[in-house]
Amino acid sequence: MVRLTLDLVAKSANQKNRKEENITQYLKKITHLNFSNRNIDIIDDLSLCKNLSVLYLYDNNIGQIDNLSFATNLTHLYLQNNCISCIENLSSLKKLEKLYLGGNYIAVVESLEGLGELRELHVESQKLPLGEKLLFDPRTLQSLANSLSVLNISNNNIDEIKDLETLENLTQLIAVDNQLLHVKDLELLLNRLPKLWKMDLNGNPVCLKPKYRDRLIVMSNSLESLDGKEIKQIERQFLMNWKASKDARKNMKKKSVIWDASAPPNKSDFESTHQRIPGYYGAPQVGKANLIFFSYIKRCPQNSRECPEVTK
After folding, report:
1. Which of helix, strand or coil describes residue 163?
2. Residues 183-200: pLDDT tens digits?
3. Where are the transmembrane segments (predicted)?
4. CATH of domain 2-231
5. What pLDDT score was predicted for residue 310?
6. Residue ranges per domain, the chain?
7. Integer distance in angstroms from the first to the last C-alpha of the chain?
8. Coil/strand/helix, residue 110
């Protein structure tokens, strides 16, 4: 078992860079530490490294995020490709701006409340049990609503992203190789993310839907790149014109249906000016009514002195 300790940090220090400094002075001044791919299992007490701002610990065997509460100046933390199953013990990192946790065993994005400066969160390719998907704690999403700008959730078996509507300041969303299926869900999301300019959904079933790209471009005026392909202004303008024309035809069709429903039944010109009426002729026989039909009587215009024309 390999532990990341102050002694290990001191032994790795370059003597030329240290000059005449003693170990304690060196540890207090250090700002960057790179212990990636060193088979580290445990983060030990590094509290002397109070000015640490960037810590590289990717490609190790770390199973728990621990002993980092001292690092109040830390802005970048790289923990991808470890054995971490739970996001925890990060609440003291008030200046943290970028957090890399891809390639671990995390099932829920949680416990990031209080990280008001966090701009980038990378949780792609979690090693989840078969059939499970990455979930999001609503409290964590709400706490990141004002700060988070970049989110990478690729390859996590995610089939819906409605919860991400909370992240109103998101500018880049990378959700490659998931199970997103419905264009309508993406349209609703884009409607709630007015600052999003880059979205990559390659490898999702939704990408195969008819008019998928066209519909998303029309829905978002801020989107500049979709699935790695730039959205040019001429493309957006063409699609906007197409949608406006389509909507206009749809509205006309609706109005036509309303007019047809409210209009009286159609009559021919002949029927509109003629009326069939009954009449008697001759002397009626006792017990019988001699009933005949004058075929049509032409209706006279109002105030007309002409007599109706009778046809038999």
Report:
1. helix
2. 999 999 999 999 999 999
3. none
4. 3.80.10.10
5. 46
6. 2-231, 232-262, 271-311
7. 115
8. coil
What is the number of alpha carbons within 13 Å of residue 15 lying toward its C-beta? 1
Q: For residue 100, give both structure tokens.
A: 């890399």
pLDDT in tens, 78-113: 999 999 999 999 999 999 999 999 999 999 999 999
CA atoms within 13 A on the CB side of 296: 9
| Residue-level pLDDT at 205 | 98
Residue 32's DSSP bridge partners are 54
Separation CA 193–CA 172 (nearest Å): 10
- Residue 181 confidence (pLDDT): 97
Query: 92: which 2 tokens?
Result: 């003291």
Beta-ladder partners of 150: 120, 172
Q: Which of 173, 231, 236, 171 is closest to 199 using CA atoms?
A: 173
- Do the Cβ atoms of 123 and 134 come closer than 8 Å? yes
Pair of tokens at residue 110: 């949680």
Euclidean distance between CA atoms 198 and 169, whole angstroms = 12
Categorise residue 92: left if φ over 0, alpha if ψ from -120 to 50, beta otherwise.
Answer: alpha
**CB-based contact 4:21 (threshold 8 Å):** no
- Other C-beta atoms closer than 10 Å to the C-beta of 98 total 17
* Residues 212/190, Cβ–Cβ less than 8 Å: no
Q: pTM for this structure?
A: 0.78
Q: How many H helices and E strands in the chain?
A: 8, 17
CA distance 92 to 65: 12
Low pLDDT (below 70) residues in the chain = 14-21, 247, 255-312
Q: Nearest CA to 201 among 221, 182, 222, 220? A: 182
